[in-house]
Amino acid sequence: MVESAVAASNEQLARVYASSHWAHTRHVFQSIVPDPNNYTHLALVGIALFFIIRIAVSVARGPGADYFIMDKVRRQAVATKRTFTPRELSEFNGKDESTPVYLAIRGIVYDVSKSRHMYGPQGPYCNFAGRDASRGLALSAFDESVLTDLDAPIDPLEGLEKSEQASLDEWIEFFSGKYTPIGTLVEPPVESKKDQ
User: Fold this and answer.
1) Residue 141 bridge partners (DSSP)
2) Of all residues in the chain, what percent are helix, strand and coil, respectively (each to 5)?
3) How far apart are alpha carbons 52 and 179 in whole angstroms?
4) Which of 70, 83, 124, 130 could form a disulfide with 90 if both were Cys (CB 3.0 to 4.6 A apart)?
5) How far apart are CA 79 and CA 182, in angstroms?
6) How wide is the angle at C-alpha 27 spanned by C-alphas 22 and 31, nearest 5°?
7) What one-character-per-residue DSSP string does 15-74 give?
8) How many CB atoms lie within 10 A of CB 196?
9) Rounded distance, CA 94 to CA 115, Å?
10) Alpha-carbon torsion, ordered 44, 50, 55, 60, to 10 deg
């Protein structure tokens, strides 16, 4: 009796599988997967699905979701409450191998020592080591002309266009995901400005 029920169940599943919808789906997958020449098509389908899912997730989050994420990054907790003036931060520029390499973005100081090859003296971003890199990253400009003087007030980042602000937000998201925030960038006390 059990054997006849199993056979009937298998027969019913075979009929469903053979129906036009299932047969078409099976045909599509068989045409993509088994032929090695179609792995390119499979990769393209995978990439397309990735972007479709990514768009669906961003739509599900609702308008302003990206701004909400960036607000969380801006309020990111800093592990140690050390503060750096621009001049103090400049001591961590990677020229001394025994000191860590730091840089600041929008007031948050990150330890980028694990990428010394990028931010150290011979690296492509060496001008940002020990400095506030905010304007340079926003403008995608990597020369010294975008850096503020060490004794000048911290750059308020005024005059940036929306696309430049968006670029800076992307950099902040990248840095907060890869590097450890170790402090904040602050204006030097008024007395020390007069002393220098």
Assistant:
1) none
2) 55, 10, 35
3) 30
4) 130
5) 6
6) 150
7) HHHHSHHHHHHHHHHHHHSSSGGGHHHHHHHHHHHHHHHHHHHHHHH-TTHHHHHHHHHH
8) 8
9) 10
10) 150
